[in-house]
Amino acid sequence: MRSSRPDETAPTHSRTGFDIGFDVGGTFTDFVLQNRATRRVHSFKLPSTLHDPSLAIEEGLSRLLALHGADAAGVVRLGHGTTVATNLIIERKGARTGLLTTRGFRDALEIGRQTRPHLYDHRVTRPPPLVPRADRIEVAERVGADGGVIVPLDEAGVEEAARRFAAAGVEAVAVCFLHSYRFPDHERRARAILERALPGVYVSLSSDVLPEFREYERLSTTVLNAAVGPRMGGYLDRFLASARRLGIAAEPQTVHSNGGLMSPAAVRERPVRTCLSGPAAGVIGSAEIGRLAGFPDLVTFDVGGTSTDVSLIDGGRPLFTSERLVAGYPVKTPMVDIHVIGAGGGSIARIDAAGALKVGPDSAGAAPGPAAYGRGGTEPTITDANICLGRLDPAALLGGRLAVDAEAARAAIRRVAEPLGLTLEAAAHGILRIANAAMGRAIRSISTERGHDARRFALFAYGGAGPLHAAELAADCGIRTVLVPPEPGTLCARGILLSDIGMDFVRSAMERIDADSWPTLGALFAELREEASGWLDREGIAPADRAFHRSIEARYEGQNFEIPVPADDLDSLGPEGFAERFRAVHRRTHGYDVAGRAVEAVNLRLQAVGQVEKSALSPPPSGTAVPTPRARRPVYAGPSAGWVDTPVYDRASLPAGLSLAGPCVVEEMSATTLVLPGQSLRVDPLGILVIAVPAAA
Q1: How many angstroms separate the Cα of 35 from the Cα of each of 24, 197, 247?
Q2: What number is the average pLDDT over the span 313-335?
Q3: Can you state the angle between helices 84-91 and 215-246, rounded to 10 degrees?
């Protein structure tokens, strides 16, 4: 997350020591180390240990430091992205959680919005509530929508609830009272009673987690926060212990869903904010690298081992959302707007009941992994298809550290080729085309379907498999330029070193925008700024390194959903100026406005930013001489071109300023980039591969 103030200067930090960023994915854990003195960046990957992610973290940090002669005591900055919270929700392995709520609202968690996930498919059902009915306890209390107390809190009832929670063996309690976003005192008093009666039990308040209206979303988010809190705390304890054993004294920072960083203490309080941790870091890193390269408009394309994540960067700024579903459960918290589909290198191909070839969303993951990895996998995957087509090295990956069994890959692909009466290459290429079709739909969902012309964006490809699919996918989507950053397979880890400390603070206002309410909104923003400043104090951010950005989520009176409107210039804007800006945003978002209709402020948001030093790109030497290919191999380029003798280059040998005509393959430790016949590649001054994709005939 970057501040946009043009007059600010970067914070001053030590120019010695090491920065490390790492991202725990579903298949691999990725590491990036930067030497502050030399500005050199080193990348490393190893398979994730899903049963305990801290094991892969400790092994990876140890090997990374040893490989590059880095002293653990010299690590100045340690940042990480994690899927722990997301996996706990998906697998429903959170702590046993109790719910304390206002009398009469015990079943709100189960009733929800009374909407079906898929209106016409009766087989698709909502996930079960994370708190069983027996562990949902009501207590007498009531606060009105204006914040006034209607029924005082029954403290004896809270004490009785604590006894019932203790008897049930709950590990966490979510407290969500009606309208507590306006008056949080009842929740705070309930927490004091629960913590005294239930020592060691994790307590989460909705007025802390999500102090805004819409009780179901606030309730769901608070319950999720409580459910993952104890397990996330245990993970952090093991991770911190691993870092200390290695001699790393720097306090780790975790990237959260809006692309900012927060301390371990902040993660313990609001772990639900890490649900898009690693992917958000990748988008933030893409925006920064795109800005440096002169490409402010990007479609980010991150293909890992399990999923594909796409997002839109418009004018150098990622798009954000405040609500999404995680494993079917509503989570309402500020986050980078990322569309995720189940298509990655480990996605499994199969023949469905109708005899059609399908790919994903099931994945072979890290264990057993694709058949070619030789860890016991037998199902055909996207990775196996790429190996069969010569697009991936048929001998080894990860710089030679991961041996590849090409015959096992071919045997796996034959499992779908033979029943369909296809040749090996036709089946393998069919798998890729099906995967690319799903990826193309994801790109159109965040571009064309939202009124953006995908042709004016560059495709920013990263993740272990993103650069392998990008050239073919760009041609399918009408995108003319593909960008591949250095070591794309570890960009999410690199993005952590390009992120700032950040947190969003919110208040529900529910005020008509006019001259009478305008001072009230200003006063609420002042309260938010005071709260945000206190948080930045606890995060150790100096006043000179701080920035604050304001926005108002507004709607026309009578509407049910609001849209965010920038309001940094609130003091000079005035109510009329804001209303006009809202109408312009509404026209751009929905295609119309409503002349004469009053505008209503729903939520006020303040984004607090603490700037940190960014890791810079290390440009390669310049030159125009074409290096000698490290190898040549036949690559299947599609039915029209067939098998093509293709040069394979080591990316480290490509100088800035070099141009190459396709076809060619560029290999590096974390990824492989494919350039098809008719396309061309150049290396820009920052070492970014820029692929030109000709327009379709």
Answers
A1: 22, 49, 17
A2: 84
A3: 130
Indicate if the alpha-carbon torsion angle 303, 306, 312, 315 is positive or negative: negative
Strand, helix or coil for residue 511: strand
Which residue reads 């033979």 in tokens?
A: 418
Over residues 574-597, the pLDDT tens digits come to 999 999 999 999 988 888 889 889
- The residues, ordered by sequence, that sit 6+ positions from 32 with a Cβ below 8 Å of its Cβ are 20, 21, 22, 41, 42, 43, 44, 487, 490, 493, 494, 496, 497, 615
Structure tokens at 341: 């589909």
Buried b (16+ CB within 10 A) or exposed e, 206-215: bbbbbbbbbb
Cα separations in angstroms, 543 against 3, 76, 301, 680: 14, 20, 36, 48
User: CB neighbours of 215 closer than 8 A, spacing ≥ 6?
Assistant: 105, 108, 176, 178
Question: How far is residue 291 from each of residues 284, 285, 422, 529, measured CA to CA in Å?
Answer: 11, 10, 45, 29
**pTM reported for the whole predicted model:** 0.85
Q: What is the largest CA-CA distance in the chain?
A: 81
Q: Are strands 202-205 and 172-176 parallel, antiparallel or unpaired?
A: parallel
Q: How far is Cα 492 from Cα 151, in angstroms, rounded to an integer?
A: 49
Q: For 563, how many CA atoms within 13 A lie in the half-sphere containing its CB?
A: 20
Q: Average pLDDT over the chain, rounded to whole?
A: 89
Report the C-alpha gap between 668 and 467 in whole angstroms. 11
The helix (run of H) or strand (run of E) holding residue 342 is none
Asked if pLDDT for residue 278 goes beyond 80, the answer is no
Of 532, 577, 531, 533, nearest in space to 554 by CA: 577
Q: Which two tokens stand for residue 610?
A: 């603490």
Q: Which long-range contacts (CB under 8 A, 24 or more apart) does 5-8 make?
A: 5/547, 8/547, 8/611
Residue 629, exposed/middle/buried by CB under 10 A (0-12, 13-18, 19+)?
Answer: middle
State how far the Cα of 221 lies from the Cα of 206, in Å rounded to an integer. 8
**Distance of alpha carbon 191 from alpha carbon 196, whole angstroms:** 8
Q: In this structure, are strands 298-303 and 458-462 parallel, antiparallel, or unpaired?
A: parallel
> Closest Cα partner for 19 from 101, 66, 76, 96?
76
On the 0-12 / 13-18 / 19+ scale of CB atoms within 10 A, 291 is middle
Q: Note the pLDDT of residue 353.
A: 85
Which amino acid, residue 279? P
Specify the DSSP class assigned to residue 652. G
Residue 161 identity (one-letter amino acid): A
Nearest to 44 by CA among 35, 59, 89, 55: 59
What is the full DSSP assignment across 404-438? --HHHHHHHHHHHHHHHT--HHHHHHHHHHHHHHH
Residue 312's closest CA among 485, 517, 117, 450?
A: 450
Q: Give the SS3 label for residue 149.
A: strand
In one-letter notation, the amino acid at residue 417 is A
234 contacts: CB under 8 Å, gap ≥ 6: none
Phi-psi region of 69 (alpha: psi -120 to 50; beta: other; left: phi over 0): left
Q: How far apart, in whole angstroms, are the C-alpha atoms of residue 301 and residue 476?
A: 14
Residues in the chain, how many? 697
CA 429 to chain centre: 29
Over the stretch 54-113, which tens digit does the pLDDT of each residue have? 888 999 999 999 988 889 999 988 999 887 888 788 778 889 999 999 999 999 998 888
252-262: pLDDT as tens digits: 889 888 888 88
What do you get for the CA distance between the two ends of the chain, in Å?
Answer: 40
**Rounded Cα–Cα distance for residues 505 and 322 (Å):** 12
Tokens for 8?
């600010």
Q: Distance between CA 460 and CA 484 in Å, rounded?
A: 6
Other CB atoms within a 10 A radius of the CB of residue 300 amount to 32
Other Cβ atoms within 10 Å of 278 Cβ, number: 27
